[in-house]
Design brief:
278 residues, twelve-stranded mixed sheet
Length: 278
C-alpha cells in the first residue's frame, strides 16, 4: 500500500511539473534568394547582381524569441537597427513586408486562439482569430537538433498569389496557384504543441521549419529559466480578423502596384526588370 501511495505521489508531482514548466526558444530565420535582373546594356553585371543578392540574403536573416508555457506563448523578433535597402550600380531593391520588428504573436493553445499585433505603414492592428488546424502527416524519420531527438512531419496546401513584374516600364500582374510543402521537425522531449510563428499542432515543440524558400531553425532552448517568464497578450491596436487583415494587405498591395504604374519610366529610358523569388 505504501509503495502504491508513493507511486501516486510521484506521478502527481511529475504531472504538476509538466503543467507548470516554461521555456524560451531562440530561432534563426533565413530565406533563399533567387534574384533575376534583366534590362538593357546598362543593367547591373553578374558580379553586381551577386552583391545585391548577398545584401538581400542578410536582410532576411533574423532572430526571434518564443516564450512559452504549456498553454500560452509569445513570438517576437529581436530588436535591431534598421539596415539600408540593398542597391548596386544605381539599382535599388525596395523590400515591402507585412509587419515590423515590434510585432508580437500571442497564442493561447487552451482556448485555441491567437492575437497578432502587427503594423502596416505606421498603423497598428490587433489580428484576433482562432488557430487554424494544420493537417500534419507524421513520419518515422528522425534527426538530432542540438541535444533533442526530433521527428519529421509534413503538410501540403494550395496557395493563390500574385506575380508582379515590371518590363519596359509596364507593370504586369498575374494570378497564379502553386502547391507549398511544409516540413517540420518536432521533439516530444518538450511536450508542448507549439512552435515558431504560426506553426504548431504537433506532439512536441517544433525546432525546425522548412517551407518553400524559408527556413526557421531553433538555435537555443532554456527550460525553466531562473527569471520567470511573463507572457502578456497584446492589447493595443485596431481589432480585425485574419480575413479582414488579409483584405487590408491586398488593398495596400494594389495601391503599391498603382504607384508603380504611375511612376514608371518612359520606354526610351533605362528600364530594368527585377524579380525576387520563384
Amino acid at each position: 500500500m505504501k509503495k502504491i501511495l508513493s507511486l501516486l505521489v510521484m506521478v502527481s508531482f511529475m504531472t504538476a511539473n509538466a503543467q507548470n514548466f516554461q521555456g524560451k526558444a531562440t530561432y534563426k530565420t533565413h530565406r533563399k534568394m533567387d534574384l533575376q535582373i534583366s534590362g538593357d546594356k546598362n543593367a547591373p553585371n553578374e558580379e553586381m547582381q551577386k552583391q545585391i543578392q548577398e545584401q538581400l540574403r542578410k536582410q532576411f536573416q533574423r532572430t526571434y524569441f518564443l516564450n512559452f508555457t504549456q498553454t500560452e506563448s509569445t513570438y517576437k523578433q529581436e530588436e535591431q537597427l534598421s539596415s539600408p535597402q540593398p542597391q548596386a550600380a544605381g539599382v535599388a531593391v525596395q523590400i515591402v513586408s507585412a509587419g515590423s520588428g515590434q510585432d508580437v504573436l500571442y497564442k493561447n493553445l487552451k482556448e485555441n486562439r491567437y492575437v497578432n499585433k502587427a503594423e502596416i505603414m505606421g498603423k497598428r492592428f490587433l489580428i484576433k482569430d482562432t488557430i487554424a488546424k494544420q493537417d500534419w502527416q507524421l513520419t518515422g524519420e528522425t534527426k538530432s537538433i542540438g541535444k533533442y531527438t526530433c521527428y519529421k512531419a509534413t503538410y501540403s496546401r494550395e496557395i493563390n498569389y500574385k506575380d508582379i513584374s515590371a518590363v519596359d516600364g509596364e507593370v504586369k500582374e498575374e494570378e497564379k496557384t502553386r502547391t507549398v510543402v511544409t516540413t517540420a521537425w518536432y521533439t516530444p522531449e518538450i511536450p508542448v504543441s507549439n512552435g515558431p510563428s504560426n506553426y504548431g499542432g504537433l506532439p512536441g515543440l517544433i525546432l525546425e521549419i522548412n517551407e518553400d524558400k524559408l527556413t526557421i531553425v531553433c538555435s537555443e532552448i532554456v527550460m525553466n529559466p531562473d527569471n520567470k517568464i511573463t507572457i502578456e497578450e497584446p492589447t493595443k491596436g485596431k481589432e480585425v480578423s485574419q480575413k479582414e487583415y488579409d483584405e487590408i494587405m491586398d488593398k495596400k498591395q494594389q495601391e503599391m502596384i498603382e504607384r508603380m504604374r504611375n511612376n514608371r519610366p518612359s520606354k526610351d529610358g533605362n528600364t530594368i526588370e527585377i524579380k525576387i523569388g520563384g
